[in-house]
Design goal:
mainly alpha
Length: 130
């Protein structure tokens, strides 16, 4: 299903110590093929697109490229992402605020005029014309 040759060709043309730009370029090549296949199968193939999906780490930018590199490393290819490059690509988690249990939380009266505007959802129905 996936084009295993293009990412491999690109990876073999790169230095053994990958840079952010190398990872970004590898992701772009993988994304093109993943999008083509997702359109072909009419669904998002994230997580099931290729064998390297088993190595996926969504906590970094360019997760497909990192997963592909990890898979190739496990197959014995001499390539690495230096720790400083890997750390620079980590996605920072938003601070999670602790919320007090419901019985300890004070409730405030809210003036109707001060309420945020209600969000509305539009639903459309499309018909296929033959």
């Amino acid at each position: 299903m996936w084009n295993s040759q293009e990412p491999l060709k690109l990876l073999l043309s790169m230095p053994a110590q990958l840079t952010r730009e190398n990872i970004e370029n590898l992701q772009a090549v993988i994304d093109v093929d993943k999008i083509i296949n997702s359109q072909k199968f009419k669904r998002d193939l994230c997580g099931e697109y290729a064998p390297f999906c088993d190595y996926c780490d969504k906590s970094v930018r360019f997760p497909c490229a990192h997963a592909y590199v990890k898979m190739k490393q496990s197959e014995g290819l001499d390539v690495e992402v230096p720790e400083e490059v890997y750390n620079s690509l980590k996605i920072e988690q938003e601070a999670v605020e602790e919320v007090a249990p419901a019985e300890e939380t004070e409730t405030e009266e809210v003036n109707e005029e001060e309420e945020a505007p209600k969000k509305r959802i539009r639903i459309a129905v499309a018909k296929k014309i033959r």
